[in-house]
Amino acid sequence: MSDRTIVPERLFMLGNLGTMITYAAITVAIVVPVTRAGQLRSNRLAVATALIFATAAVGHGLYTWLMLANPGLLGRAVDSLWVGALSWWNVVTGLAGVYYWSVRQSSRTAPGLIYADPHRQRVLDEADAHRATLQAVVEHTDDAIIGVDLDGTVTAWNGGAERLFGYTAAEIIGRPSSIVADPAGADEQRRVIDQVGRGGRGVSYETRRWAKDGSPVDVSLNVTAIRDRSGRLTGVSAVARDVTAAKAAAERQRAVEERTNQAQRMESLGRLAGGVAHDFNNILAIIVNYTDFAVEEAAGNKALESDLKHVRNAADRAINLTRQLLTFTRGDTIQPQDVDLNAAVAEVHAMLERTIGEHITLIEVPSSRPPVVHADPGQIQQVLLNLAINARDAMPDGGTLVLEADVTDLDGGELEMQPPLPAGTYARLLVSDTGEGMTADVVARIFEPFFTTKPRGQGTGLGLATVYGIVAESGGSLNVYSEPGVGTTFRIYLPLVTAPGDAVPATLRRDAPPPGDGRTVLVVEDEPALARVVTRILSNAGYHVLTATGGPEALHLFTQHGCDVLLTDVIMPEMSGRRLAELLHEARPSLPVLYMSGYSNGLLGTTHVLDGDIAFIEKPFTAQDLLHKIAELNTKKLKTP
Questions:
Q1: Other residues' Cβ atoms within 10 Å of the Cβ of residue 639
Q2: Residue 160: in which H helix or E strand, if any?
Q3: Is 402 helix (H, G, I), strand (E, B) or coil?
Q4: Residue 418 has what DSSP assignment?
Q5: What whole-number distance in Å separates Cα of residue 169 and Cα of residue 148?
Q6: 462 and 450 Cβ atoms separated by less than 8 Å
Q7: Is there a contact between 570 and 596 (Cβ–Cβ < 8 Å)?
Q8: Phi, psi of 599 (to 5 degrees)
Q9: How confident is residue 505, by pLDDT bands cut at 50, 70 and 90?
Q10: Gap between the Cα atoms of 131 and 420, Å rounded
Q11: Is 479 helix (H, G, I), strand (E, B) or coil?
Q12: Residue 134 burial by CB count (10 A; 0-12/13-18/19+): exposed, middle or buried?
């Protein structure tokens, strides 16, 4: 063998030897820390990596041994046994590579990480568990969590959003977020996204959105920016919470507080007025008696007698005024007895027929059953006369005045009752007119003593305060419903007489109304607080409810979703309930309609706002009354106007 052959052969052998040592060192560097960490069985990727380096080291070792055992190998043929051994070992190395690749594909270890430090692995596992927990919280929270990109397209929609709005994630992701808003709400969304996009802080506000079935949802929204790792704004997230029930409870609480405050104001004013009245009576007693003395002394002096007569008339007016004050403060002497309100209404009707004027149509509507109450008959007459005179004054150009008596049920939860009454069956007087009506701020003050809307000198402001005092002293309550330009209805509720042997039979229905079975009721009511109450009553009874605040919105909901029953207020700003029913009957003549109103049916019938034999329920009504009335529409063929 020549020197020219020996030199390359030795260099080749040394190269294989160095490579073998390197691969062996790498194998040791992998196996030792993995073994110390107790991961020799669990860390398959590390074992596979060590295996492929170990087989490579053995392969290079075989080449080195072959060259040592066969000097001059590069210049001659190799024994077939060695060639076979080397070939088989190359196959083993290849299989180790395949095993490594399969482990790499299924390994949870981060790319490039063979040895997982126990602490680091624990941190990674805890991070994965935290992300899974956070994802579960977001998905199952009751709040709606929604992701929206800068164009207003929905990118995320959790389970809370599905439950709140009725859309599944598959239905709404990729669609504009304005799908749950009306036009004004869509503009509001756009402004909020722009505000957050300009670097503004998170925005919190309350608004109204719309569910898939068309029902309104009052929500509290918290909108914040979504940014990627580089800090670039990519969209916004919105957390929406249903506050419909909370708002209804807050409104109810405000109503209770207002009633309490008004009762306190009335009590304070009553004490003041009572003190003034008693002092006035002492002064008037002196004036009246000395006037009578002077009249006796002035006998025969016509001029002086006439002057003293004017003084006495003024004193009599003052006496009547103080008597009203004492009645208001419940300090006057009364003589209560059983009074039939039908007879009281008839007596006042006969009295008014002679005095009220031909420009006013006077109607009497007695009850079909005797409404007997325990009260002072003179005070009941005074209540009816005071209300009738106010109604006459509110109709200077003529109109209709209706006096009614009936028996009704209360469930104890009615709003705007002054003072509140417990649940039960009550006798009721109604005085309705088609006069000028009153605004809400005037209605809130009409029972305050000395408050009047009449010109100076034409009213004392004690008429309605006296009515309030009489009714409250009798254990009753009042309710006022009025709209400017339409008219006013006063309702007086008084306890029924239930004496043994002559008890008034109760009419409170005890049978449970039939369930709604998913039938759709379109509720049209322009008073939001009452609309929410009606929606809750019907929903709890199994009805599917669509709610509109007026005729145009109701037409839109009917076009989109249809309905099985229309429950509508009679008098509304944009479109009357009667006109709405006419338009819906053009599309569906057989649609049942139930009308509701704060005015009595007697007044609405006499003024031809509604015909007398339509389905009608009078506010305030109980939940039982409403559910039974809705159920009856499916069994009776009631006339529609």
A1: 10
A2: helix 159-165
A3: strand
A4: B
A5: 13
A6: yes
A7: yes
A8: -85, 155
A9: very low
A10: 54
A11: strand
A12: exposed
Name which of 591, 597, 588, 541 is nearest 568 in CA terms.
597
Q: What does the pLDDT look like over 122-166, one tens digit per residue?
A: 655 665 666 666 565 666 677 888 888 888 899 888 888 888 888
| Lookup result for tokens 């420009």 | 359
Q: What is the pLDDT of residues 339-385, one digit of tens each?
A: 899 999 998 888 888 778 788 999 999 998 889 998 888 788 888 98
Residues with Cβ within 8 Å of 98's Cβ and at least 6 positions away in sequence, in order, are: none
Measure CA 287 to chain center.
62
Give first-to-last CA distance, the chain, whole Å: 125
Helix 44-69 with 3-36: angle, nearest 10 deg: 160
Two tokens at 452? 């009047």
Which residues, 6 or more positions from 83, have their beta carbon under 8 angstroms from its beta carbon?
Answer: none
State CA 100 to chain mean position distance. Answer: 61
How confident is the prediction for the chain on average, in pLDDT? 78
Q: Are 464 and 390 in contact (CB under 8 A)?
A: yes
User: Quick check: 569 and 577 in contact, CB under 8 A?
Assistant: yes
Alpha carbon 512 to chain centroid, angstroms: 26
How many Cα atoms within 13 Å fall on the side-chain side of residue 535? 23
User: In sequence order, which ranges of 541-593 are alpha helices (DSSP H)?
Assistant: 551-561, 577-587
Q: What average pLDDT does the segment 23-29 reach?
A: 81
- The 10s digit of each residue's pLDDT in 394-420 is 898 889 999 999 998 887 767 678 888
Angle in degrees, CA 245, 247, 251, rounded to 5: 115
As a whole number of angstroms, the distance between CA 505 and CA 407 comes to: 10
Other C-beta atoms lying within 10 Å of the C-beta of residue 291:
15
Say how many C-beta atoms besides its own lie within 10 A of residue 511's C-beta: 7
Cis peptide before 118 (omega within 30 of 0): no
* CA-closest candidate to residue 218, choices 571, 535, 518, 525: 535
User: What span, in angstroms and rounded, lies between the C-alpha atoms of 169 and 121?
Assistant: 35
| Strand 233-242 with 565-569, pairing | unpaired
Instruction: Residue 559: count other Cβ atoms within 10 Å of its Cβ.
Output: 10
The amino acid occupying position 439 is: T
CA–CA dist 502, 527 (Å, integer): 41
CB contact at 8 A, 39 and 113: no
Angle at 235 between CA 234 and CA 240, to 5 degrees: 155
The alpha helices in 329-407, defined as continuous H runs, are 341-353, 377-393
Phi, psi (deg, nearest 5) at residue 409: -115, 145
User: What is the Cα–Cα distance from 374 to 239, expressed in whole angstroms?
Assistant: 57
Distance in angstroms (rounded) separating the CA atoms of residues 99 and 23: 18
pTM given for the model? 0.44
Q: Phi first, then psi: what are they for 523, rounded to 5°?
A: -100, 125
Please name the amino acid found at residue 138. Answer: V
Task: Please give the DSSP secondary-structure letter assigned to residue 9.
Answer: H
Q: What angle do CA 139, 142, 145 make, to 5 degrees?
A: 55
Task: Please enumerate in sequence order all residues whose Cβ is within 8 A of that of 69, keeping only pairs 6 or more positions apart, or say none.
Answer: 82
DSSP state of 450: T
Residue type, 17: L
Count of residues for the chain?
641
| Residue 262: Cβ-neighbour burial (10 angstroms; 0-12, 13-18, 19+) | middle
Give the other-Cβ count within 10 Å of 286's Cβ: 10
Here the tokens at position 497 are 């007489």
Residue 446: strand, helix, or coil: coil
Q: Is the dihedral of CA 277, 283, 285, 288 positive or negative?
A: negative
